[in-house]
Design goal:
Layout lengths: L1 E8 L6 E7 L5 H4 L6 E8 L6 H13 L2 E7 L3 H18 L14 E3 L5 H10 L11 E9 L2 H14 L10
Parallel strand pairs: 2-6, 3-4, 3-6, 4-5
Antiparallel strand pairs: 1-2
């Protein structure tokens, strides 16, 4: 497990970028930040896909913490996107007793299973505009690597190519 590290600010969206790594999604709450109002989230998954239960618990925690945009990359990423959507529908509509029809804010989700990691990270840094009603206060972009330290380093290298930072920030 690697705690979240601050690696800079996105040029286009002006968000602070935090990147961390866990071996298991259940470890996420131990490294989650406590001081961001709303945030975008990128799940980078290594070789094996997490279980539906792991993904659902993560999605519930992210929604409770005010995640306003969810992206997933790697094995099982389309399932992660679908499960995240299900949690949003359950919490925002079923549990709250709201009608799904009508003008409600949405939390955009996307998965990038067949794209190179660098493209998914570029999308995360440049294209994650939340619903207008949720955009105020979005000042953080969190990327969580589930898996190997090698994937974490590959992700940090990709972030480094898109962020104008001191290269020492990205060294192990």
């Amino acid at each position: 497990m690697d705690p979240l590290r601050d690696i800079g600010i996105t040029d286009k969206l002006g968000r602070r970028v935090l990147v961390g790594r866990v071996d298991h999604l259940a470890d996420w709450p131990t490294i989650a930040p406590h001081a961001c109002k709303r945030f975008t989230f990128l799940l980078l998954n290594d070789d094996d896909a997490p279980t539906d239960d792991e993904l659902t618990v993560l999605a519930e925690d992210l929604v409770a913490r005010s995640c306003v945009y969810f992206l997933a990359w790697g094995p099982g990423c389309s399932r992660a996107e679908t499960l995240f959507d299900g949690v949003v529908i359950q919490r925002w509509f079923v549990d709250a007793g709201r009608e799904i029809a009508g003008d409600h804010p949405i939390i955009p989700t996307t998965s990038h299973q067949d794209e190179p990691l660098r493209e998914a990270i570029w999308c995360f840094l440049n294209m994650t505009q939340p619903d207008d009603s949720l955009a105020e206060g979005v000042n953080t972009a969190i990327a969580l690597v589930r898996g190997s330290a090698a994937l974490l380093q590959e992700a940090l290298d990709a972030f480094a190519s898109d962020l104008d930072n001191d290269p020492d920030v990205f060294a192990d």
